[in-house]
Design goal:
The protein has about 140 residues and is mainly beta. The protein has a single domain, classed as Pnp Oxidase, Chain A. It has 2 helices and 8 strands, in the order E-H-E-E-E-E-H-E-E-E. It is elongated. The chain starts with 8 loop residues before the first strand and ends in an 11-residue tail after the last strand.
């Protein structure tokens, strides 16, 4: 008999990863520009096997213009379990005739700044893991 203790780390299937991505709306995007690595929070949506997000001018748009390799991650945890999904791929700025892909999708920017451009993360690899946590009991004597 296999117990949670025997397998504290479990690989998630592609379907599980995409389900978690579809249910989410916030993650972290990592990308390299020249000799600097950037890590930024973004809100996103899933569309046809890709991730879409809005942005204004700046480093993310430059990374998209350069078709930069990126990593994107979402995660969750409580006291007993955690999971993480990582998407690796390339960024591409959508052309004006493709920007309609965000229309009608449940996606509202969290920050009210101009974000006229739509960027697509085209995945090459999607992986995920679920973790069973064993956290120490709190020492109430220290409180």
């Amino acid at each position: 008999m296999v117990t949670d203790i025997d397998q504290p780390v479990e690989e998630l299937s592609q379907d599980e990863c995409w389900s978690l991505l579809a249910d989410g709306e916030f993650g972290r995007l990592a990308y390299r520009l020249v000799d600097e690595v950037h890590l930024v929070p973004i809100n996103y949506l899933v569309d046809s096997g890709a991730l879409l997000f809005r942005t204004g001018s700046g480093n993310k748009l430059l990374a998209a213009a350069l078709h930069s390799d990126v990593a994107f991650e979402i995660d969750w945890h409580d006291d007993l379990a955690a999971w993480s999904v990582v998407v690796r791929g390339e960024l591409h700025r959508l052309q004006e005739d493709e920007e309609h892909r965000v229309d009608g999708l449940a996606h509202q920017p969290w920050i009210l700044t101009p974000t006229p451009d739509v960027v697509e993360l085209r995945p090459t690899v999607v992986t995920g893991r679920r973790f069973r946590l064993r956290r120490p009991e709190p020492d109430h004597e220290l409180v």
